[in-house]
Design a protein that fits this description.
- This protein is of the alpha+beta class.
- It contains six helices and five strands; from the N terminus they run αβββαααββαα.
- Strands 1-2-3 form a three-stranded antiparallel sheet, with helices on both faces.
- The protein has helices spanning 14-28, 63-80, 87-92, 94-104, 115-124, 136-160; strands at residues 35-38, 41-48, 51-58, 105-106, 109-110.
- Helix content is 53%, strand content 15%.
């Protein structure tokens, strides 16, 4: 489940997150509907073969917007995985999943709802992308990785120097 990377402070501990995930799965895995209300949250979901995709918002969120995010994520993954959206293919391409999520939402703000644009931006994620064409998330990740590299080299210098 990718959710631990995208939790806010609603469920601060791993134990609470796991209990919430189990509760969602138990409520949704045997139904054909696409929306559920659970613990004061709006949950939209979709299943495909051996995977379940969830987008969760507050009870005040528009269900159509949440469904738009879910459809964008699923359609983006479908294109990236050449319509082979199943557990094994997704596990082999987890980086693509994380990049797609980063292109679609950031901190609860919907950035993109067009799967074609998401796939295009995920494909562009490389060192040769001009700064003006990078998303805020890309710039932040680049600066974070640069700072981490500096920190690691300083740590090695201190440890071995």
């Amino acid at each position: 489940m990718t959710a631990p990377f995208y939790y806010d402070d609603t469920y601060p501990t791993v134990k609470e997150q796991k209990a919430f995930e189990k509760n969602i799965f138990n409520k949704t895995h045997r139904t054909d509907s696409e929306i559920a209300l659970l613990e004061g949250l709006t949950v939209v979901y979709k299943s495909n073969i051996d995977l379940y995709f969830y987008v969760i918002g507050s009870s005040h969120e528009n269900e159509l917007m949440l469904m738009s995010v879910l459809n964008c994520l699923f359609d983006s993954l479908s294109q990236m995985l050449r319509k082979n959206v199943e557990k094994r293919a997704l596990l082999e391409n987890m980086e693509g999943l994380f990049l797609a999520v980063d292109e679609i939402v950031d901190g609860g703000v919907i950035l993109e709802s067009d799967p074609q644009q998401v796939v295009h931006r995920v494909a562009l994620r490389g060192d040769d992308v001009p700064l003006t064409e990078q998303t805020v998330t890309q710039v932040r990740e680049y600066s974070h990785s640069s700072l981490s590299a500096v920190y690691l080299s300083i740590s090695f210098s201190l440890s071995f120097g």
